[in-house]
Write a structure and sequence with these properties.
With 197 residues, this protein is an all-alpha fold.
Length: 197
């Protein structure tokens, strides 16, 4: 309803994961549904892009191109562990993202850091590499599994947060922490209620 692209992707992901068995059994209903959802996605994208499907006008595409430019000369170790600690983006990157100057360094010299990329996934890869991203994903997944949820539940939670991380704060959000706490408390409460009966 808010026309959030990541929200729509999360909805499609969750519906797909929950209904995967039914999808395989009732393909004759699913194919028209997928086509309808596809049309909805195109409509939302066109609306968000000012009436035309030109992805170069999308701010997320701009963040992606800046991110890719910043990492194009990385070594294999950089991809594993990220840039050196507290590494600013290049002057060109900061210039291209000047519209978001409120997120620039407080030094006032025009420097900016990975936070200006607006994507938690880009930020983690830039600052900590793919090892850092895998560690965070594994940590969250293991919390879900150790709390007694199924692997499917763990993958669903991880998928939601990962998709959300393409555009916003994701794992780094207070809402994520509260959501995980609520998720785990509901499970504990359900287990406690079963033991009482």
């Amino acid at each position: 309803m808010s026309k959030s692209i990541s929200g729509l992707l999360i909805l499609l992901f969750v519906l797909g994961m929950i209904n995967v068995k039914h999808i395989l059994k009732k393909i004759y209903i699913i194919i028209p549904s997928i086509l309808l959802l596809g049309v909805s996605v195109v409509y939302v994208l066109k609306d968000r892009l000012g009436g035309e499907l030109d992805f170069s006008k999308n701010t997320r595409f701009q963040f992606l191109t800046v991110f890719l430019k910043e990492i194009e000369n990385w070594t294999f170790l950089n991809y594993l562990f990220g840039a050196s600690r507290i590494t600013p983006l290049s002057e060109n990157a900061c210039r291209r993202l000047g519209y978001w100057q409120s997120l620039f360094s407080y030094s006032g010299d025009g420097s900016c850091y990975s936070v200006v990329l607006h994507s938690y996934i880009f930020r983690v890869i830039f600052d900590h590499g793919f090892i850092g991203l895998l560690f965070i994903c594994y940590f969250v997944y293991s919390i879900i599994i150790r709390s007694g949820f199924s692997r499917t539940n763990g993958l669903i939670v991880l998928g939601i947060v990962f998709i959300n991380g393409i555009s916003v704060s994701s794992f780094n959000s207070v809402y994520f922490a509260l959501g995980i706490m609520f998720f785990l408390i509901v499970k504990k409460h359900a287990d406690y209620s079963k033991n009482l009966v």
